[in-house]
Amino acid sequence: MMIHVFLLLSLCFSDYGFLPVASLGINYGQVGSNLPPPDKVLDLLSSLKITKAKIYDTNPQILTTFANSNVELIVTVENQMLAVVMDPQQALQWVTTHIKPYFPATKITEISVGNEVFTDDDTSLIGYLVPAMVSIHGALVQLGLDKYIHVSTPNSLAILQESFPPSAGSFKSQVSATMSQYLQFLANTGSPFWINAYPYFAYKGAPNNVSLDYVLLNKNPGMVDPYTKLHYDNMLYAQVDAVVYAMFRLGYSGIEVRVSETGWPSKGDPDETGATPANAAVYNRNLLRRQMRNEGTPLRPNTKLEVYLFALFNEDMKPGPTSERNYGLFQPDGTIAYNVGLSALSTTSSTSSSSSSASIFLTSSADKAAKTGYQSLVYWMFVYLLAFQVLLRQH
Q1: Mean of pLDDT over the chain
Q2: For the chain, where are the E strands, in sequence order?
Q3: Enzyme group, top EC level (predicted)?
Q4: What value does the mean pLDDT take over residues 310-319?
């Protein structure tokens, strides 16, 4: 009978508990003066049940610390290294030094060759990109790692000439030649097309013309693409599908699109409309709920959209406007930056160390009430069964 009770408890709490989301990752940036060490970050990710993370380099301390954990890592070849790793021998040396010593103990699943190369101020990088990717992939082949580690690169949405409606999606003409080579590489290697998609920027640029509910993934009437008749209830999915259509126009239809960065700043300069803790909480909470449902976009409803949140921490050393330093879900000391539905569940301390753990608690007020009801029901069933056992023993 007690076994049945624990089974019932497991079923109830699995509906409202803290289960990992397979299609959710997070960006672990390190441009800060006071960030916690990698072992504390790993503890935080484990308590959040987040099993995918992306870093913007190949920090050996992180790669060593994350060994034998359940966290899958995307690592990065920095933009300034692209001209070097174009050379196949240099690429082999890079992979031998930065990847091979850590794999497979550290679950490196992908190498990002550069970041937003197509829209970088240094336009010479565009010519380096595909040769660098080919060389890095060739090095993985030589070392027998290509079956485990993909090669791709994150792209800004500024690569699009048109993005609205989604079916009009097209790439800018100045990148189309290299883009075709890049897409051929992805098709040949089975790698995904990554985009950094921020509906926040669209709202910031035209707050009087863009619906806040539409960009925050709140309930709203949405829009219907006049050509495909597909209904979009949020801008993020529309942006993803615009990229899919842009690839269609170049003759590529089977490449998966994933979101390498998306988020919302909790603080900004006076001209950064919408950068508030409330909006950041709503955007990320709504996104997390959709990830829990393994949603796809209207164009690809049966393919769950993989998304990496930006970012784990606020990073005080990032240049640019105030918003750039305030995308984090957490402050550097591990406290929650704003209430996104991440509830601190337990804190343990000792004379030598202390750590806080938090878990994703994806519930609205109604969800919390429902959870309380379930817990109450389970509690009284448990009491009843114990009392029933006592009566059986007495008789």
Answers
A1: 86
A2: 24-27, 52-54, 72-77, 107-113, 150-152, 154-156, 160-162, 170-171, 193-196, 223-224, 231-232, 257-262, 307-309, 342-349, 354-360
A3: hydrolase
A4: 96
Q: Map out the domains of the chain with their CATH numbers.
A: 24-345 (3.20.20.80)
Q: Where in the sequence numbering do the catalytic residues fall?
A: 116, 261
Question: 62: buried, middle or exposed (CB in 10 Å: 19+, 13-18, 0-12)?
Answer: buried
Q: Closest by alpha carbon to 182, among 267, 269, 113, 242?
A: 113
List, for residues 12-40, the tens digit of each pLDDT value: 333 333 456 778 999 999 999 889 999 99
Nearest-10 crossing angle of helices 365-394, 2-16:
180
> Per residue in 149-179, pLDDT tens?
999 999 999 999 999 999 999 999 999 999 9
The structure tokens 């753990």 sit at 357
Percent of the chain with pLDDT over 90: 77
> Whose structure tokens read 């000792």?
350
Residue at 1: amino acid letter: M
CA–CA distance from 63 to each of 111, 234, 301 (Å)? 13, 36, 35
Residue 312: exposed, middle, or buried by beta-carbon count in 10 A (0-12, 13-18, 19+)? buried
Residue found by looking up tokens 């990002």 in the block: 112
β-strand 354-360 against 342-349: which pairing, if any?
antiparallel
Residues 121-146 have pLDDT tens digits of 999 999 999 999 999 999 999 999 99
Give the model's confidence band at 360: pLDDT under 50 very low, under 70 low, under 90 confident, else very high: very low
- Specify whether the CB–CB gap between 292 and 21 falls below 8 A: yes
Q: How far apart are the first and last CA of the chain?
A: 17
Give dist(CA 150, CA 185) in Å, integer: 11
- pTM recorded for the entire structure: 0.84
